[in-house]
Structures are given as C-alpha cells and as structure tokens.
Amino acid sequence: MIIMGFSTLQTFPLIEGLTGPQTLDVLHKRITALGARVSGQFVVDCETYFSAPSLLPGNSQRVLNVLHNTEEPASVFAILEGGAKQPVLVADTLLDALLPKMAVLYTSNKKQTRIESKGNRYEMGDFVVKLGSVTMSGSFKGILVEVCYLACVVPALCWEMVWEFMQSFLGSTVPSTLPPYIQSRQNATFSPTDTIQMYLEKFNEFRKQTVAR
Amino acid sequence: MEDLDDSAKASLGHSSGALARSALRSATRRNKHGASASVLIYNGATPLEVRLEEDEEDIDLTEYLLQGSVLDSSKDVLIHRLRGLADNVDEQVETFQDRERVLTLGPVSGQTLTLYVRQAMDVRPGMDQSDTPWTMRYIGQPELGDKSRPTVLRNSIDVGCTPNVLEFLSEMGFKQDYEFMCKGLMFRKGRMKILVYKVYKNKTADNWEPLSMSHVVELSVLAPQGHDAVAEDVRNFAEQLKPLVQLEKTDYRRL
C-alpha cells in the first residue's frame, strides 16, 4: 500500500486553563466523536549537528538536521541549513550508523538536543490525523497537528476541503491560507520530503521558544 | 599490481556496486524493516516499535574480503570457472558499471572522513539515468590480523540515497578527491559476492581509459560483527580458484 498524499502541519495553542496533555485529551475526544479511530502511535524526531568551526572556508557554519518519521520507516531524512541552498537527502536507515563516524566534524550541541513530536495517529476515511506532543529533552514545548489527505497530491486542488475538515475539530485556530512553505509549491506534487521540511520549520520555531505557549 | 598509481591502489581497497548488488544487500536489510514493518502494522504494532526492537548486532556492517587480479588475457578462463561454481548462472551473467567518486571532509583536529559515492551507470531497459541508485559508502580501516585469519576484515556501511547526494555532501563541505569507473561482472555464491571488474580512470572529462591490463577479482561477504565463520567459507571458495587467480589479503600499508 503506497501512502502518498498531501499533509499540512500547524501548531495548536494550549486551551485556556488546561495543560498540554489535557488539551490533547480534548482534541482526542473531539476527533473520536467525529468518527476517527486510533491506528497506532507516530513519532517524528529531529537531531541536530553543527559543523566544526574550522571545517568550512570563511568560518561559515552548516547545520545538519537528521529526521525520522514513522510514516516512512525505512528512510532517514537529512536537511542541511546554513548555506545558499537547503538540500534534503533521503537515505536508508544505515545513515544513522554513518553519523557517529563524523562525530568530530559535525558535533551535536549539548543545548540543542533531540526534539520530537509524538502521539496518536488517527484514521478517518481518506484522512490521517496525527496529534503530537512536542518535547525537547523531556520538557513539553507544544502541540503539533498534522493532517494528511491521502487521495490527492496537489495542494491547490484540495486545500479548501482539508481546511474545512480541520476546522471541524480544531476550530478557528486554523488559518484559512496555505502554510507559507506550501504557498510557493501549491501546484506541484507534494511529497514526504515536503512534510519533513515543514516539521523542521516547526521544530526550529519551538527551539527558539523558551516557554511552552 | 605493482605499477598502479595512488588512486588505483586506493580503489583496490573497496568494491564497487551494481544495481543487483545493492539490491542484494539492501534486500536483506529491508526484509528486516520493510517486510516485518508492514506485517506488524496490520497486527497493531507501529513502525516505531519495529525500530526500537532492532538491535545493532543484526545489521551487516563488517566486510570479509579477499582480493586478487587476473590478466585480461586469462580473464575468460576465470569467468568460465566462476560460471560453473557460482549460483544461478543459466541466463546472462550479471554485469555492472559504476562510477565512483571519492569525497573527503576535513581535516578537523587531525580527523578526516572519506566517503565513496557510487552511481550505477548501466541503465536497464525501462529505467532512465535519473532513476539509477546512488550509494554512499563508508569503509573503515582494514584489519589484517594474523595468519590464522583468512580474510581482511573491515567496517563497511552502505547507505542508499537520493541522487542529490553529491550536492548535499558538497554543501556539507566534502571535496572530491578523485573518481573512477568500474565495469565488470558479478557472481553470487550463497552469501558471497564475487566481482571481476576493470578499473577505468578519466584523465580528461568523460575520456575513460583502463588503468592496467588486468581485471580485479574480489571475494566478499557482508556480515554482522563477530561472525568470523563466514571468513572460512570465503577462504574455501578462494581455494577453488587457486591456479587461475591468487586471492589473498592485501596489505594496504605495503602498497
């Protein structure tokens, strides 16, 4: 079964007076009331490595982000930031075995450790919804909601419908315009690397926050 | 083997890949992930749990290797013998053609990292050049051991990746040292892989010339760490090729 489709990602702000887990509970109740069923757990995680200062000319730095997504269990995504381009490499899981070999050249910073979004995966007809609790070294940072529509790969063609669906359980927190990352690609085929790029954007936002919203 | 220049000497240190070869290797791995992962999803467990269960010992990371060479004029006799000894060669013998680039990163605090990026050049019918597999290979220091160890042991990590790997690695800071092309045949016997190939170098762009008048012969097995018994199988097979080609542990320090 090839699972392809279009995904959109957004943060869900904590409900007034409730903690993170309690907010997730409210969302769980809303979505199961709509008829979704839990189909397991998902994890999207990201580890970051920084190039050694003397590695590149002009003392410029590159940041290597290595992400895993349980939706693509046999793949590892690597995104390089800091240069003119931001290439995404998709490799098989042995890439994880290769990373310790470059430990001196690309080190992981003690402060920017692993960040992950973890939670339940719900299926409802052609939609897959993932309600993730974002944590960084054990501390809760926020809630990320990913909604995939499996039947279409072109964002422009199904955004309206996905937006309506999201409103039905997320309420008015859903912006009516496409996420900025997708805006420039709305007529192109969507692929899992686009989902991962959006996750990285959100993770970087969470990292800059000091307190959970 | 005496007149080879530096790049050829280094090239003897690693085997090249082919479409079928990477598939053979990755098929074993994928069956641990791919097949079992999909079965488990239907049973209610998730890919996450599959990943957590997988332990390092199951991954084939060690290569047991023997190398030798045969003059072009005697190559056909060797191929004949291999066709008889190897598995499944009723149809066409499998050929491969790979272009391998050697990239290094560093040095930082005295450490450098060398990666071999291999691109399959033989385009099968129904596939275009942009679809061919690329692999990134890390090869560790070879361990020769003493007389009782039948083969060279070295760490080998082969990562399949998307074709933008060269752009990605050069953004990371890798620089290309040199490149070469390998063209030849591949045989399989059980877990063993036997390669007979010729190395080509390009002095000018796209002008590939053979490096020497012989073919390199390699016998290797990829196995998890500590499975030294497979080295015995490699040595026994090498005995059967004895009069035609002398396969031995190459001492890289003496090259």
Task: Please supply descriptive tags for the structure shown above.
heterodimer; A: 213 residues; Hypothetical Protein Pfu-838710-001; nine-stranded antiparallel sheet; B: 255 residues; alpha+beta; globular; Mediator of RNA polymerase II transcription subunit 20 (chain A)
Explain this structure.
- The complex is a heterodimer of chains A (about 210) and B (about 260).
- With about 210 residues, chain A is of the alpha+beta class.
- Chain A has a single domain (about 5-210), classed as Hypothetical Protein Pfu-838710-001 (Beta Barrel), CATH 2.40.320.
- Chain A is built from 5 helices and 9 strands.
- In chain A, strands 1, 2, 3, 4, 5, 6, 7, 8 and 9 form a 9-stranded antiparallel β-sheet that branches.
- The longest helix of chain A is centred in the last third of the chain and has 17 residues, at about 190-210.
- By secondary structure, chain B is of the alpha+beta class.
- Chain B has a single domain, classed as Hypothetical Protein Pfu-838710-001 (Beta Barrel).
- Chain B contains 6 helices and 9 strands, in the order αααβαββββαββββα.
- Chain B has helices at about 5-10, 20-45, 45-55, 75-85, 165-170, 230-240; strands spanning about 60-70, 95-110, 110-120, 135-140, 150-160, 175-190, 190-205, 205-210, 215-225.
- An 8-stranded antiparallel beta barrel of chain B has the order 1-5-4-3-2-6-7-9, surrounded by 4 helices.
- In chain B, β7 (about 190-205) and β8 form a beta hairpin.
- Chain B is globular, with a radius of gyration of 19 Å.
- Residues about 1-55 of chain B have low confidence and may be disordered.
- The interface of A and B includes residues 74, 94, 95 and 106 of A.
- Chain A: Pfam families: Med20 (PF08612).
- Chain A: InterPro entries: Mediator_Med20.
- Chain A: Component of the Mediator complex.
Helix-strand layout with pairing:
The complex is a heterodimer of chains A (213) and B (255).
Chain A: E1 6-12, H1 20-33, E2 37-51, E3 63-69, E4 75-81, E5 88-92, H2 95-98, E6 106-107, E7 115-124, E8 127-136, E9 139-149, H3 155-170, H4 180-183, H5 192-208
Chain B: H1 6-11, H2 19-43, H3 47-53, E1 62-71, H4 75-85, E2 94-108, E3 111-120, E4 134-139, E5 152-161, H5 165-172, E6 175-189, E7 192-204, E8 207-210, E9 214-223, H6 229-240
Antiparallel strand pairs in B: 1-5, 1-9, 2-3, 2-6, 3-4, 4-5, 6-7, 7-8, 7-9
